[in-house]
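Hey all, sorry for the wall of text incoming. These are the two entities for the joint prediction.
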Amino acid sequence: MKFTAHINIMPLKELLDPQGKAVSNSLHNLGLTNVTNVRIGKHICLSMEAKDAEEAEKMTTEACKKLLANQVMESFKFTLKEE
Amino acid sequence: MKFTAHINIMPLKELLDPQGKAVSNSLHNLGLTNVTNVRIGKHICLSMEAKDAEEAEKMTTEACKKLLANQVMESFKFTLKEE
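and here's what came out:
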C-alpha cells in the first residue's frame, strides 16, 4: 500500500525564530500591519510503500527523528494519507 | 478577532526538487528503503488581527503572493483558524 506523510517541522515555541521575525517586518513594510507573529518551518511530503498505516507511521517517525527534525530546536507533527 | 493561517508552500509538481532528492537518498542510506519520493517546502504560521475570516483570508493571500511564495516555482495552500 502507498502512503503519503505530510510532515510539519517547526522551531520550538520557546526559541526565537529570526527568519520569521524578518518576514514579519517585511510584511509590515508591505502594508500588512495587522500581522502579529510569523513562524517559519518546513513542510515535507514523504511518499512510501508500507504494509499498513502502523508501519508507515513508524517509518515516518524514524525518518523525522533520525534525519528530518533536529529535536533540540524543532518539533514535528505529521498526518498520514493512504493513496 | 485573532486568526492564524497555516500556510504550506511547495515546489510545483512539474519541477525537480533537488533538496527532496537528497533527503530521499539519505533516507535510503539510513535503511528506509521503502521511501519512494520526498518533496520539501515551507510551512508558515501567520498570526494576525482581522475583523472576520474573509479579511484574514485576503491578507494571507496577499502575503503569499507578494512575499512568501515565488509563484513561478511554488504553489501555496493555507487553512485559517480563529484563535
